[in-house]
Amino acid sequence: METKSVVDPTELTNRYLAVWNERDEVRRNTAIHVLWAERGGHVAPSIEVYGHEAIEARVARTHQRWVVEEGYRFASRGNATAHHNVVKFTWEMVPAAGGKAESVGVDLLLLDDDGRLRCVYQFIEE
Description:
This protein is an alpha+beta fold.
Protein backbone atom coordinates (compact mmCIF):
# COMPACT_ATOMS: atom_id res chain seq x y z
CA MET A 1 0.00 0.00 0.00
CA GLU A 2 1.43 3.36 -1.05
CA THR A 3 1.44 6.11 1.56
CA LYS A 4 0.97 9.67 0.38
CA SER A 5 1.68 13.10 1.73
CA VAL A 6 0.30 16.44 0.60
CA VAL A 7 3.82 17.96 0.52
CA ASP A 8 7.44 17.26 -0.35
CA PRO A 9 8.91 16.62 3.12
CA THR A 10 12.40 17.92 2.31
CA GLU A 11 11.11 21.15 0.79
CA LEU A 12 8.78 21.73 3.73
CA THR A 13 11.43 21.11 6.38
CA ASN A 14 13.82 23.45 4.57
CA ARG A 15 11.21 26.22 4.59
CA TYR A 16 10.34 25.47 8.22
CA LEU A 17 13.96 25.68 9.39
CA ALA A 18 14.56 28.82 7.32
CA VAL A 19 11.96 30.56 9.53
CA TRP A 20 14.06 29.92 12.65
CA ASN A 21 17.23 31.20 10.93
CA GLU A 22 15.69 34.25 9.20
CA ARG A 23 17.17 37.51 10.48
CA ASP A 24 14.64 39.83 8.84
CA GLU A 25 11.56 40.03 11.08
CA VAL A 26 9.14 40.92 8.26
CA ARG A 27 10.30 38.01 6.09
CA ARG A 28 10.24 35.68 9.11
CA ASN A 29 6.69 36.64 10.06
CA THR A 30 5.49 36.44 6.46
CA ALA A 31 6.92 32.92 6.22
CA ILE A 32 5.14 31.97 9.46
CA HIS A 33 1.82 33.10 7.99
CA VAL A 34 2.47 31.08 4.84
CA LEU A 35 3.63 27.93 6.62
CA TRP A 36 1.23 27.70 9.57
CA ALA A 37 -2.54 27.46 9.49
CA GLU A 38 -4.15 30.46 11.19
CA ARG A 39 -4.72 28.58 14.44
CA GLY A 40 -1.70 26.35 14.08
CA GLY A 41 0.50 25.53 17.01
CA HIS A 42 4.01 24.78 18.19
CA VAL A 43 4.39 22.43 21.15
CA ALA A 44 7.76 21.80 22.80
CA PRO A 45 8.62 20.31 26.20
CA SER A 46 8.69 23.74 27.83
CA ILE A 47 6.19 25.79 25.77
CA GLU A 48 2.91 25.49 23.91
CA VAL A 49 1.69 28.29 21.62
CA TYR A 50 -1.15 28.65 19.12
CA GLY A 51 -1.92 31.24 16.46
CA HIS A 52 0.31 33.31 14.21
CA GLU A 53 1.12 36.03 16.76
CA ALA A 54 2.13 33.56 19.45
CA ILE A 55 4.24 31.57 16.98
CA GLU A 56 5.90 34.79 15.78
CA ALA A 57 6.84 35.62 19.40
CA ARG A 58 8.06 32.07 20.05
CA VAL A 59 10.26 32.03 16.96
CA ALA A 60 11.55 35.57 17.62
CA ARG A 61 12.66 34.63 21.16
CA THR A 62 14.41 31.49 19.95
CA HIS A 63 16.01 33.33 17.04
CA GLN A 64 17.28 36.15 19.23
CA ARG A 65 18.82 33.86 21.81
CA TRP A 66 20.30 31.08 19.72
CA VAL A 67 20.95 32.64 16.30
CA VAL A 68 21.72 36.28 17.10
CA GLU A 69 23.24 36.09 20.58
CA GLU A 70 24.81 32.62 20.58
CA GLY A 71 25.76 32.32 16.89
CA TYR A 72 23.99 29.08 15.98
CA ARG A 73 21.86 28.04 13.04
CA PHE A 74 19.25 25.33 12.70
CA ALA A 75 19.75 22.65 10.05
CA SER A 76 18.12 19.44 8.94
CA ARG A 77 19.94 16.13 9.13
CA GLY A 78 18.42 15.33 5.73
CA ASN A 79 16.11 12.56 6.88
CA ALA A 80 12.67 14.11 6.34
CA THR A 81 9.98 11.56 5.69
CA ALA A 82 6.22 11.81 5.36
CA HIS A 83 3.04 9.89 5.05
CA HIS A 84 -0.50 11.07 5.04
CA ASN A 85 -0.40 14.53 6.62
CA VAL A 86 2.60 14.09 8.92
CA VAL A 87 6.26 14.96 8.31
CA LYS A 88 9.02 13.76 10.65
CA PHE A 89 12.62 14.92 10.59
CA THR A 90 15.69 15.42 12.75
CA TRP A 91 17.19 18.88 13.16
CA GLU A 92 20.33 20.13 14.82
CA MET A 93 21.50 23.43 16.22
CA VAL A 94 25.06 23.94 15.01
CA PRO A 95 27.55 26.81 15.27
CA ALA A 96 27.09 29.09 12.25
CA ALA A 97 30.86 28.98 11.71
CA GLY A 98 30.80 25.17 11.67
CA GLY A 99 31.33 22.53 14.29
CA LYS A 100 29.55 19.93 16.37
CA ALA A 101 25.82 20.15 17.03
CA GLU A 102 24.95 21.73 20.37
CA SER A 103 21.41 20.37 20.34
CA VAL A 104 19.49 17.75 18.33
CA GLY A 105 15.77 17.19 18.12
CA VAL A 106 12.99 15.50 16.21
CA ASP A 107 9.99 17.46 15.00
CA LEU A 108 6.65 16.07 13.89
CA LEU A 109 4.81 18.43 11.57
CA LEU A 110 1.07 17.76 11.45
CA LEU A 111 -0.44 19.25 8.31
CA ASP A 112 -3.91 20.34 7.33
CA ASP A 113 -5.38 19.28 3.99
CA ASP A 114 -3.76 22.32 2.31
CA GLY A 115 -0.29 21.31 3.48
CA ARG A 116 -0.03 24.06 6.11
CA LEU A 117 1.23 23.36 9.61
CA ARG A 118 -1.63 22.49 11.91
CA CYS A 119 0.69 21.71 14.81
CA VAL A 120 4.40 21.06 15.30
CA TYR A 121 5.50 18.75 18.10
CA GLN A 122 9.15 19.17 19.04
CA PHE A 123 11.20 16.57 20.91
CA ILE A 124 14.66 17.49 22.17
CA GLU A 125 16.96 14.45 21.86
CA GLU A 126 20.32 15.95 22.90
